Every structure is written in C-alpha cells, then in structure tokens.
Amino acid sequence: MTFEKAGMPGIDRAEWWRYVPAHWRVARLKYFASKIGSGKTPLGGAAIYADSGVAFLRSQNVHFSGLRLDDMVYISREVDETMASTRVQPRDVLLNITGASLGRCALVPECMGPANVNQHVCIVRPDRSSLFAPYLNYLLSSQQLQDKIFAGEDGVSREGLTFDRVASFTLAIPATVQEQQEICAFLDRETARIDALIKKKERLITLLEEKRAALINRAVTKGLDPRAPMKDSGIPWLGSIPAHWHERKLGYLVRMVSGSTPDKGNSAYWQGETPWVSAKDMKTSTISDSEDHISDAAVRQCGMRVLPRGTVLVVVRGMILAHTFPVGLTTTPVTINQDMKALLPNPDCAPEFLAEVLRGTSRMVLALVEDSAHGTKCLRSDLWKGLWLFLPPLPEQHKICAWVGATASRFDGVLSKTRAQIAKFHEHRTALISAAVTGKIDVRGCTREEELLT
Residue 28: beta bridge partners? Predict the structure, then answer.
C-alpha cells in the first residue's frame, strides 16, 4: 500500500487526511452525503410525547455502541407528518451536535422502524454509491474526527456544531465501497471482541460493588462477632441484631442543621474558599470540596453555619431521592444549601458509624420520601426523626469502622484496577478504529488483529 507522505515526522493530527493511502479519495463530507440536517422539538415539548407511535430519537439515545432505545419516547403520526423532512432511514448515521453528548454517533440499524429526531441530533445520510454507512460511523467516532468536532480552526473548544461545520469535515475514504466494507468487517470483529471484554469487566465491577456493600451493611447492622447473642430488631428486612446493641431514634441521636443559599445576585458572596455543598456534590462517601464556594462575607452576613469536619451530610430534597439516598461525611469544614441536612451526632455515636448505618438503612429512609408541592421529592424531618437505629457501644463502633475502612480499601483497590483496565480497552478500541479508517494499517484480508503484527 502506497501512502502520501507516509512516515513524515511532526505530522499534524488535524491534517491526518494528508497522509493516507494514495488511492483513497479526499473530499468534504458534503460530497459524500445526500442529507445533512436535524429535526426539532415539536410544539408543546415533552407534553406531546406518547407511549407509542413514531420513535423520537434524542441525544440520550445516541451512543458510540449503538442506539439505546430503553429511554425512548414517541410522537404521534400526525406530529411526524409535520416533520416529514427529518425522518430517519435505516443506515443513516446520527451525530449529536449539542450538549454534553456532543460528538457521539450511531448507525441506524436496518431493523429500525419509523423514527424522527429532535434538533440536537444531526442526520448524515451517506451517498451509498460512494460511502458505506458503517464506515462513516466508524470514521466519525475516530480520534481524528472527534478532535475536529470538539475544536475550531483555532483550537478553541466548541459547544455545538452547525450543519455547515459537519458538511465541511474533510474525509479520506477508500476509493471503493468494497474496501470500506472490508475495513468495517475487520472493525466489527475486533470491536465486538473488545466490547465483550469491557462488558465482562463492567459486570465484575457491579458484582464487586454489590459484595462490598453487602459486607459493610452486615457489619454495621449485625456486628463483627458471629457468635454474639442476637435479638429480634422488630424490622422484617433487618431481622436480628446483637442483643447488647441499643435502640435510639434518630431525632434523639443527632442535632440537625439546615442550610441556605446566599444571594446569587451578590458576586462577592461567591468568590471565596468555603465549600458550599449541594446535592450535585454528594457523589462520594466523603466530602472534601464542592463545585461552588462562598466567601467569609457570605458566611457572616447571610447567617451560614460552617459545619465541622466529621459532619454527616444527607440530601433531603431533590429528584435523586426517587431512587437514592446520598450520605456523605465531611473531611473539611463546609456549608450546605437548603436541600441538605447536616447531622451532628451525640458523643456516644461515631460520625463514621452513623454515615454507614444510614447508607445501610437507605431502603427504610427512601420509604419515607414524599412528593413536595412543587413535584420534587422530599424527606420531611418530622418523619425522619422517628427512624429507629441500632447502636453498639462506642468502642465497638470504632472497631467496626476500622474494619469497614480496611474492607472498603481492599475492594476499592480492585475496583480501581478494573476501571483502569476498562479505560485501556476503550483507548485501544479508539486507536484501532482510528488506525483502520486512516489507512495506517492495511486490514484487507486480515481475519484477526494479531495478523497485523506478523
């Protein structure tokens, strides 16, 4: 295979198409496509979505691994008639052109029924006489085209794509559809193999996380001594607990502190160093920082309570309570907003133990969640204060917390290594696609990736 300027040092990745096999064709995407355009959100927005009818594809349905239809909404055939020009056809390539999912693309399968798209999804319909649709999908997902999607000519990050920008993408493709099909066949085999490995690793992560949670939950509800005398807790799902553990209502066990929001219109309040924790920050078991920070002036003038290290934070209002009860333990002084509650436990309750117990009893807590007048989920303090908890003596709490910390650390080490392996698989997948669709490797006649190395 002959390359144009192949092997030249200092090649600019933005001009990858200058260094492809000599017989490949180089041109703008618009010369390979019969359609580039997107739909719109019908008048009435989400209110017009139906449970059946014409599939309405949005950016959350478009993924590199293919279309995900588990979060599908539909529009009526009458609404679809008003959007006839943006109907999706099998073998179209869909490209997300706005938002957090910018750049994700997917091939529309042959089996796809009637479908349309909104304004965040661009339909690229290749000219089948010159461009094989799966090849275009692979090309758009390659590192070279993804770089182009996320940067302008001056390298400045872009938050969205226009149709003109998409049409102007420079493509370099094999001159014949047959060669494109050979490359796709190779990539289909190899990416399927990599995807299978990724799926196994993701399943392992799920199992490890479930095992980790089960072991920790058992420790904070049953103790560490399997020979300890037990008594009935009176709670069906909890069963028996160590006989020497004491029952305490949450309201008598902790002091609850509410949060608030300083004036958003006063910029001086939001130029400080003190973390201001809200529900979006409650993604980890320990809270050491937050997305937003407030100033000392905000703390003084707005009556904000600075909570000490070792405070248990929980979310008491927000849609996340529909399925999850976030609990975090602070490792630094913080303030909180009005959707949070801070729990300051009595001296006979270790904060670390309380945090783990609340995570372990999240099923019971979520059963108390109600809908507020504004439609969001909320956890009323008067109901929550009556929650019964079971506590061992303080020395035993510390012993359990030490065991939990060591156990979590072991699991976290394995989980970290497994996630790193998944990241490597993804990197390898991207690199393989990029090499194949830019002609850096000649896959014609290859049946396995290993053959390229021999």
Answer: 170
Q: At what angle do helices 351-360 and 177-222 cross, to 10 degrees?
A: 120
Whether 210 has a pLDDT exceeding 50, the answer reads yes
Contacts of 22 (CB under 8 A, 6+ apart): 2, 3, 4
Secondary structure class of 95 (helix, strand, coil): strand
Judge contact between 295 and 270, C-beta under 8 A: yes
Determine the Cα–Cα distance for residues 225 and 203; give it in Å rounded to an integer: 31
Residues 241-252: tens digit of each pLDDT:
999 999 999 999
Write down the pLDDT at residue 199: 94
DSSP letter for each residue of 280-296: GG-SSSEE---SEEE-H
CB 331 within 8 A of CB 254: no
Amino acid at 325: F
Give me the pLDDT at residue 9, please.
36
What confidence score (pLDDT) does residue 369 get?
86
How far is the CA of 74 from the CAs of 40, 107, 422, in angstroms?
Answer: 14, 19, 34
DSSP 8-state symbol, 99: S
pLDDT of residue 11: 38
Q: Express each pLDDT in 69-89 by its tens digit.
A: 888 899 999 999 999 999 999
User: Mean pLDDT for the chain?
Assistant: 89
Q: Which among 7, 126, 2, 107 has a CA at the least distance from the CA of 57?
A: 107
- d(CA 352, CA 357) in angstroms, rounded, equals 9
Distance of alpha carbon 134 from alpha carbon 361, whole angstroms: 48
Q: What are the chain's domains?
A: 22-175 (3.90.220.20), 254-385 (3.90.220.20)
Q: How far apart are CA 228 and CA 224, in angstroms?
A: 9
Whether residue 59 has pLDDT greater than 70: yes
- Residue that has been written with the tokens 């609990």 in this structure: 327
Q: Are 22 and 38 in contact (CB under 8 A)?
A: no
**267-295 burial string, b = 16+ CB within 10 Å, else e?**
eebbebebbbbbbebbeeeebeebebbbb
